[in-house]
Specification:
Elements (H helix, E strand, L loop, with lengths): L3 H29 L1 H21 L14 E6 L5 E14 L3 E12 L8 E10 L4 E11 L4 E16 L12 E19 L2 E16 L5 H4 L8 E13 L10 E11 L9 E15 L2 E14 L25 E15 L2 E13 L11 E13 L4 E10 L2 E8 L4
Antiparallel strand pairs: 1-2, 2-3, 3-4, 4-5, 5-6, 6-7, 7-8, 8-9, 9-10, 10-11, 11-12, 12-13, 13-14, 14-15, 15-16, 16-17
Helix pairs in contact: 1-2
Length: 408
């Protein structure tokens, strides 16, 4: 039988090693130049890919097409102690055009926990010649009073710069490629039932390569338009009464985070970001749920443009690079019916949001809206893990998405 502990050691080790790796990349680029950087990059990509796919298995049907795959480990009571999901995906979004990839996810529980721990990996490639590898482990232990979660990411991402602000002209678009190495780790502990507090640390190293040598990115007039190293510490306060972590039908999740990047711990820029994320889940009657989310992000200091709040990072249907500024507010709601029949369900969602540089800039005339619908397939009834296909329509923007688990 596979023990959950075996799946905890490897990702934690990877997250800790990524700290040294990111610092090393930052120094290597300065000392030996980009050729050595590319060599190290290729080695890490290979190890990362082997590690990720080593945690999954694929079934191939008679036509040679990979299928959605689940592997389970059953304990002596008949309960599933470990589940493995492998989902091949094809999707498009305002950032990517057509993309193909795979989303492996492992779900398990420690011997003293009822909350599900998980290890998820995203790996995909797009027709815009973008690729992204992302590992996200989440671990619960000690009777669900302790949690450790993190992220390890690498991507090479040709994309566009529209400018900063709520109303940017498409005529001023500049294209560039970002090569990004990113890692973070967060640990929280329970203070009283439902209330958690903790701290985190994150690193981000990005290389911006403009396609136009005469644009404002090449000129360096935009903060963060060159190679940027960000190192920051954070604190978190979280109140969680959800009945299920993958598909909540009742309860709430309120999370407040403070993140500070400082030159004292190696960051090229110093800034602070405050984030408040409030979610409420209301069960109308069996299989019918209303989910509501309110988000506020506020920054102070010298914020690089690639980490400014973005409408597209909250809403489906928007590019993550189109509407960016120092502050963001968003409100969205989703009506979910899962399952409607057998394992299949549907959702409908809508929301409003905007970014702004000062509080007195908020105006209803500039609000960004989104409306959309989605289809759900309940892959795991016991864990309530859904595969979702969503289509969102925004202000002069739209996109379709396929993913595991709900958007919020």
């Amino acid at each position: 039988m596979i023990k959950p502990a075996n799946f905890i050691i490897c990702p934690v080790f990877v997250l800790l090693m990524s700290f040294l790796y990111t610092c090393f990349i930052h120094k290597v680029t300065k000392v030996w130049g980009t050729n050595m950087n590319k060599l190290v990059q290729n080695i890490i990509i290979t190890l990362f890919t082997v590690f990720g796919f080593g945690l999954t298995s694929i079934n191939v049907n008679g036509s040679g097409i990979p299928e959605i795959t689940e592997k389970s480990v059953i304990d002596s009571t008949g309960n599933k102690k470990l589940q493995v999901l492998l989902l091949p995906i094809i999707f498009s979004s305002p950032d990517t055009r057509l993309a193909v990839g795979v989303l492996p996810q492992i779900v398990f529980r420690s011997s003293s926990s009822n909350n599900p721990s998980s290890i998820r990996m995203d790996a995909y490639y797009t027709l815009n010649k973008q690729y992204h590898l992302l590992l996200r482990p989440v671990f619960w232990y000690q009777n669900d009073t302790r949690n450790i979660n993190g992220k390890l990411s690498f991507k090479k991402w040709p994309t566009s710069f529209y400018g900063i602000g709520r109303d940017v002209e498409t005529s001023s678009i500049e294209t560039f490629t970002e090569t990004l190495y990113e890692t973070s780790i967060e640990a929280i502990t329970q203070i009283i039932p439902g209330l958690f507090a903790g701290a985190g640390y994150s690193l981000r190293y990005g290389e911006i390569t403009p396609d136009n040598d005469t644009g404002i990115l090449a000129a360096g007039t935009i903060r963060g338009s060159g190679n940027t190293f960000i190192s920051g510490l954070g604190g978190v306060l979280q109140y969680d009464t959800r009945d299920n972590h993958f598909y909540p039908e009742s309860g709430s999740l309120h999370k407040f985070e403070i993140y500070t990047a400082s030159k004292m711990i190696g960051s090229d820029y110093g800034f602070t970001r405050f984030t408040f994320d409030a979610r409420r889940y209301i069960s109308l009657y069996p299989s019918h749920v209303i989910a509501i989310q309110a988000v506020g992000m506020f920054t102070a200091g010298s914020v690089p443009f690639r980490v400014l709040p973005s409408v597209g990072n909250v809403f489906r249907g928007y590019s993550s690079v189109r509407y960016i500024d120092r502050h963001l507010i968003a409100l969205q709601a989703e009506y979910r019916v899962v399952p409607l029949t057998w394992r299949v369900g549907f959702t409908a969602f809508a929301g409003i949001s905007d970014v702004f540089s000062q509080l007195n800039d908020i105006s209803h005339e500039n609000l960004k809206y989104v409306v959309g619908m989605g289809i759900r397939y309940q892959f795991s009834r016991s864990e309530k893990i859904n595969i979702r296909l969503d289509y969102g329509i925004g202000r002069k923007s739209s996109g379709d998405y396929i993913d595991i688990n709900e958007a919020f």
